[in-house]
């Protein structure tokens, strides 16, 4: 067998990212929970294979499928801009198991104030880790900024949940089941922009089609963060809208009335089933490597690009997840 050629572009995903189907296949691979079971040695091996290949060195005996597998293992555990290893629960492959547990519990224990506060706090703590781990760019965020974002999002989520809970006391029980979703949606609108506020201050890196960095853009950051907020809210809809409807029906049946302890695990299972599909499909709503016309950038950056690269009309950036 001949040596693998060096013209395979592993800087980009394996599938066409200009189509929704191609992006969906990519994210089904990236969010695969089985990636969490990989050892540190396996992650390091994959990183070496990828970095060596990018440097023009082919690992002896490796096939193209093995190269792509190494690339996706590498992408699942290391930040695309900084190259640092992402903490385990901050990886996209942790989204389904972590969210199915947290969301299932939010939907199950929504009646009492202490449990509402506790699970909203747990959810925002997890979201803070995910948002920081999957931020765009390589600009550092200070501990103070991190703390402000975390406290603001947690306060917003809890206030929304408790406020809506009090408003729905006299409404049908089914309405109350949707309070956690409203709180999560509100918190996403707070948490993500605040956790990535540094990008809104100094911008995120934008590059030409070849990957040559051209500068930093706040406009691109705003567009990317908006896309992430939409994706996250859409991601929550199936998992937080379908199970409550099913559980509201099942809890009226004798089977669950006699076995109330089955409610929580059943709800967690339903949420997990929804998230297995919703997570990658909603991540695929927008390209990971998003684009923006130079004409829409800040005047200073636009002038700089036109001066140095007059032929460039579109720039690209990592929108984050």
Automatic annotation (TrEMBL):
Catalysed reactions, semicolon-separated: L-serine(in) = L-serine(out)
Q: Does the keyword Iron apply?
A: no
Q: Membrane-crossing residues? A: 266-286
Q: Which GO terms describe its biological process?
A: one-carbon metabolic process; serine import into mitochondrion
Query: Which is one GO molecular function term here?
Result: L-serine transmembrane transporter activity
Give the record's keywords alphabetically. Amino-acid transport, Membrane, Mitochondrion, One-carbon metabolism, Transmembrane, Transmembrane helix, Transport
One of the Pfam families matching this protein, by short name:
SFXNs
Query: Would you name any one GO CC term?
Result: mitochondrial inner membrane
The answer to whether the entry has keyword Nucleotide-binding is no
Show which residues constitute the signal peptide. Answer: none
**Localization per record:** Mitochondrion membrane
Judging by the UniProt lineage, the source's domain of life is: Eukaryota
Instruction: Give the way it sits in the membrane.
Output: Multi-pass membrane protein
InterPro entries in the record, alphabetically?
A: Mtc (IPR004686)
Q: Which family does it belong to?
A: Belongs to the sideroflexin family.
What does the record give as the function of this protein?
Mitochondrial serine transporter that mediates transport of serine into mitochondria, an important step of the one-carbon metabolism pathway. Mitochondrial serine is converted to glycine and formate, which then exits to the cytosol where it is used to generate the charged folates that serve as one-carbon donors.
Q: What is this protein called?
A: Sidoreflexin
Q: What is the source species?
A: Macaca mulatta
Q: What is the lineage of its organism?
A: Eukaryota, Metazoa, Chordata, Craniata, Vertebrata
């Amino acid at each position: 067998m001949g040596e693998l050629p060096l013209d395979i572009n592993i800087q980009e995903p394996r599938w066409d990212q200009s189509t929704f189907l191609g992006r969906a296949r990519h994210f089904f691979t990236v969010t695969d929970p089985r990636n969490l079971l990989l050892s540190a040695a396996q992650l390091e091996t994959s990183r070496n294979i990828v970095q060596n290949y990018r440097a023009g060195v082919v690992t002896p005996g490796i096939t193209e499928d093995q190269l792509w597998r190494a690339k996706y293992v590498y992408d699942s555990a290391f930040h695309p801009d900084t190259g640092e290893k992402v903490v385990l629960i901050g990886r996209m492959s942790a989204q389904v198991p972590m969210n199915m547990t947290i969301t299932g519990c939010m939907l199950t224990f929504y009646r009492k104030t202490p449990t509402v506060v506790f699970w909203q706090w747990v959810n925002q703590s997890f979201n803070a880790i995910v948002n920081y781990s999957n931020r765009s760019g390589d600009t550092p965020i200070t501990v103070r900024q991190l703390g402000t974002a975390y406290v603001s999002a947690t306060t917003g989520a809890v206030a929304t949940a408790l406020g809506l809970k009090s408003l729905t006391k006299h409404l049908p029980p089914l309405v109350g089941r949707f309070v956690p979703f409203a709180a999560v949606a509100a918190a996403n609108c707070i948490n993500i922009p605040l956790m990535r506020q540094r990008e809104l201050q100094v911008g995120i890196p934008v590059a030409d089609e070849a990957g040559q960095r051209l500068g930093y853009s706040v406009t691109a950051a705003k567009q990317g963060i908006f896309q992430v907020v939409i994706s996250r809210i859409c991601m929550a809809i199936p998992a937080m809208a379908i199970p409550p409807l099913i559980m509201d029906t099942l809890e009226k049946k004798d089977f669950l009335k006699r076995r109330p302890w089955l409610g929580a695990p059943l709800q967690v299972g339903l949420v997990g089933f929804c998230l297995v599909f919703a997570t990658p499909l909603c991540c695929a709503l927008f390209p990971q490597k998003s684009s923006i016309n130079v004409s829409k950038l800040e005047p200073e950056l636009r002038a700089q690009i036109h001066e140095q690269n007059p032929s460039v009309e579109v720039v690209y950036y990592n929108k984050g997840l």
